[in-house]
Design goal:
125 residues, 4 helices, elongated, 0% strand
Length: 125
């Protein structure tokens, strides 16, 4: 994958995740109020932040073309992504007293699903 294409994929992924998070946040605000909206935003934000951290790790290891090195870089990036998501969710659980778990899960799921959809959508172009 060429660097320009890689950068485009990351931009599209963040854009789609941001739109999904905004949509779910606004929907939760209308349906269940402010606490649910903040919870949904926290879930989506965790995935966006994790994706950006993983992308940074993957991009920094983008200079080699050996299969083993690429696989290791992908595994490192995925591990960092999961770790960042877990840390953001942990902080959210500890800090936010009015957490609405279902809203958080819906925000997290919408953002996570659309991160994968960005790759498939750009692959069709």
């Amino acid at each position: 994958m060429e660097n320009v294409k890689t950068a485009e994929v990351y931009k599209q992924m963040v854009k789609w995740q941001g739109l999904a998070t905004a949509f779910v946040t606004l929907s939760m605000f209308v349906i269940a109020g402010l606490y649910a909206a903040v919870s949904a935003f926290a879930g989506g934000f965790a995935v966006i932040l994790g994706g950006l951290a993983g992308a940074f790790i993957a991009k920094s290891s983008d200079k080699t073309h050996q299969a083993g090195a690429i696989l290791i870089a992908m595994l490192k990036a995925e591990a960092v992504k999961i770790l960042v998501i877990a840390l953001v969710l942990f902080v959210t659980f500890k800090v936010y007293a009015h957490l609405v778990p279902l809203a958080l899960i819906i925000g997290l799921a919408a953002s996570a699903i659309l991160s994968g959809a960005a790759f498939f959508g750009l692959d069709k172009k």
